[in-house]
Amino acid sequence: MGTLEGHLLPGVCFFFFSLYYSVRVSLALLREQRLLKTPLPPREKRGHTWWQLVRAEAVVKITISLTGILCELFYPPGVNRLRIVKWEDPQRPFLFSSNWPHITIYSFFLLSGVVDIVSQSCQARQSMKLEQAAEALAFFVLALLMLVHNEHKNALEVRVHILFVVPTFLVSLVLAIEVWVPDQPSLWVLKTWMGLVFSTWMLQLCLVLYVPPSGQPWRPENHEDLAFLPIFFCWHLGLGAGILATVYGICSLWHHRCSSWTEASAAKYQPCPTGYSSEELERLREGVKLQDEAV
């Protein structure tokens, strides 16, 4: 992850996941759902194909996590970072200390995806709390390793990573609370907002560390450069709120438009009367005959 591509891949994936959750949260609020994620039906009432047994989120988690792990171990081609200790050295030094934290993070998200699949496809009833706990654990590991991921870093990189930890820790904390209290819409909104913030901040991190728009690299020893980092982070708080509000507005328009269409189609459709008695049906037939004669 210590490259532009290594930061760009998780940043883009987290952003689209957060955008997806902002749509889900908006629709859940508009529909007044009790739970953000409705549990799947019992296993015997679902189909037998894998896409009917598991949600796509679990498959996406596993695919992205495996891609990240393989890139950390073998990218660029010809590199092999599977070794942790250099055994031929008498000091037994650890190797690739900047890559194994990222591999560990991806592994916990991989574990979360595996737990989702086991819960949804192997158990008679889906265990929502188990899935939520595994996801919360993955975000706690992400926050912890990013917090201590500052060895051999300059002041600029340290401050960027500390600001990244703030929304990440809040997301992990909300996920942990939702294990016991899953029906609080305010927690849904906070979790999605912080997810948007840390995903856009990770994309900002790519600009700060690797491709500054001005063409001039940031200067870690310059106090003015460091002072603008928390200012930009506050702008990302506003950007995340703006994205969430925009998504909610679009979903609200779509929801009300679909509701009006449903009501209009229901008004046009009138079921055929079947509960009339024979006398009432006879009167209806006579009325139809009189209308035909009048024509």
Number of helices: 9
Could you give the distance between the termini?
A: 82 Å
Q: How many β-strand stretches? A: 0
Q: State the helical fraction.
A: 55-70%
The radius of gyration is 27 Å
In sequence order, what are the helices and strands, one letter per element?
Answer: HHHHHHHHH
Largest sheet: none
Write down the overall mean pLDDT. Answer: 83
Unreliable residue stretches = none
Based on secondary structure, the structural category is: mainly alpha
Fold and architecture overview:
Helices cover 69% and strands 0% of the residues. The model has no long low-confidence stretch (mean pLDDT 83). It is globular and about 100 Å long. The chain has 295 residues and is mainly α.
Provide a brief overview of the structure.
This protein is mostly helical and 295 residues long. Helices cover 69% and strands 0% of the residues. The longest helix has 46 residues, at 223-268.
List key phrases describing it.
single chain; about 300 residues; mainly alpha
Give the SSE map.
Blueprint: H1 4-30, H2 50-53, H3 56-74, H4 100-122, H5 128-147, H6 155-178, H7 185-209, H8 223-268, H9 278-294
